[in-house]
């Protein structure tokens, strides 16, 4: 039994933990930051949610902010109206697996099938193929790199812990204020239904985000989608 546990542990480290560390440390085929001044890409994971996503879209529309949503495939299937609204209001839509499961615990076949299934669902709704991918919890596995070749994998500069209700509105507001404004990619969550999250946590996120967007200096920030950020960076590299 002890030997079996050691073998399983070694396999888990080789298949899951080591690839995640290597990919993130050396930025292998992942995008983590822009380089344009006064530019922020707001991104939202884990939705769509029937309660919080419509309110978030109302808030973004009120302040004329464009964002990128990394949606869970099975939720997108349940709420096609919200996916359509995101697209119609100028937001971008990326993939966040078919179910919100860490890639540490997904075999290659199921990961590939889930991404393809999610992409098909989104394409059927908005008539566009998603090109961005963010793995849940930022976890990779040994087979993620070859499987994700068809997508641009997006990480972040700031992940603020907004999935926990105890963080509170004012603390989350202060964390938002501390985020840089030169190519930052901020992760927030418009659903509290995933493992480890608090169901009512998005309530705090919405309140803190509105406080942040009301700040005077944010009027000078250019809120961009990931495509806008990537395109700006590519033009700068070419020039």
Major β-sheet annotation: 6 strands, parallel
Q: How many domain regions? A: 1
Number of E strands: 9
**Alpha-carbon Rg, integer:** 18 Å
How would you characterize the overall build of this protein?
GO terms for molecular function: hydrolase activity, acting on carbon-nitrogen (but not peptide) bonds. This protein has 239 residues and is an alpha/beta fold. The protein has one domain: Alpha-Beta Barrel (TIM Barrel), CATH 3.20.20. The protein is built from nine helices and nine strands. It has helices spanning 2-25, 52-62, 73-78, 80-88, 108-126, 144-147, 169-178, 201-214, 226-238, and strands at residues 30-31, 39-45, 67-71, 92-95, 132-133, 152-154, 158-159, 182-189, 222-223. β5 (132-133), α6 and β6 form a beta-alpha-beta unit. The radius of gyration is 18 Å and the shape is globular. The chain starts with a helix and ends with a helix.
